[in-house]
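Session log. Operator J.P. requested a structure for one protein chain; no other inputs attached. Running the standard single-chain path with token output.
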Amino acid sequence: MRHGDISMFGEDTLVFIVEALAANTAIYQDIDEMYKARSRTFAEYAGKSALMDHPLIVCGSLRHEEYSRKALGILQYAMKTRSKDMNADIDSIMQKGWPRAYDNACNYGNVDVAGYLRELNAGCRQNTSESFSELFIFYSLCVSNKLPFVKPAEVVRYFAALSLRSYIHTNSTVYDAYGKKDEAARREVDGLKERLYRGYGIDIAPDNQIRISDDALSKYFKFFYRLAYTEKIELYYLFREIELSEKDIRDVLCASIDVLKPGSDDEAARQFVAGLIVKLMVKSVVRAKQYFFQRAEEHAGDGKLEKTIDGLTKDNQKLASENGRLKETVSGLTEKLRRAKEEAAMPHLDRIRELEKQVEKLHETLRQEREKERELVALREFFFSAERRERPQAPEDGSGAVMDLSGTSGAIIGGSPRWVVRMKELLPKWVFISSEGFDKRSLDGIQTICFLPNNMSHTLYYKALAIAKNRNMGIGFIYSQNEHLAMKEIAKVLART
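Structure written below.
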């Protein structure tokens, strides 16, 4: 026994079949297979249906709405065209999605509705939506196959349940939490709003910009924005052009006031801020769903999407062909150019190699001369300073303070042990080297090196100088063993290098 003709159902009944198909994720792949064969046609039939924006279709997740509208297009097409192939495909989907309902309705001459309901409820792990969906599929199979019901009373109770479900989902009256409260409760909500706005400096601009003067609550509000950043979402742009009405504000206050302790304004303020964010999020999701399906209808309604894809595919093939020809041409020209260069350079290869060696030698000579120049400049400054050497003087301000260079780093080569001990206190981040046997790794990371010629051997000087040149360090010389003057000289070296 087969399902029969879907066209015998009216649109008021059809919406429950659509909801059932969308609620069963096990048949999504089968719906997709049917839909993609005639997507433009099915989209047109769904768009013309009065059920397109029915609450049972649009009041759910984006995925549920997508498959509801796909199923609506398929069923509307099957009803209008009376296609036997379409009815057979729909029958197969129902058999796969609801095998228990199918077996009970189609494999027996007389259907025991009460027995089926007991079987449905016994150990049932389905949620309410899934149970209602299976129940309606079972009913639609019985009606389409014109099967007699043994106990009409069961059918009456069944229709009463469906009617209640229909009322719950199709009632278009907006739920007014504020209006349903008594006068005292409304005064309490209004009083809470006034206290929150005045006490925490809350201001909601026409563009939904929420401004809060209270520092603690402002940080709590900004937390949501920082949380959004972790998903690379800018909440301001997400909420743009969304109307946050006075009703929304009262809804948030009504939702929280029943669970608040008397006088807990701090908790109420936090719940109010969080509630506003949730309200705006919900409105953003609704807007995104509407935009998604409007765009889908625009493309599918007149075949623009298919035409665009076909055009882009042809253009892509044409460009790929032209790109292949250009690659062959470029490859041929590149090879031709390479051979021409080799032929032109052949008589001059020895001369080119000789000139390249000369250029390398000149570069090395130039580098050495620059290193010598750096050293000579530093030595010249050292001797010039040595000629102007004076007796140690106290600082001009009379404070006795030594210049503070404790935040700098570098290396000092040479110096008497007592002088090194004093300078280490002033330059804690500097490296002091007095022996030519030092490990060159001690100069790793050093950018500036200062030489103290009065207490330094030639071996130590040339070893440290070679390392400084090789690592392109800043080079300087200091002459004074007075802490004040030495720190000034080091400051000049740091400024120059």
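Operator note: The chain has 20 helices and six strands.
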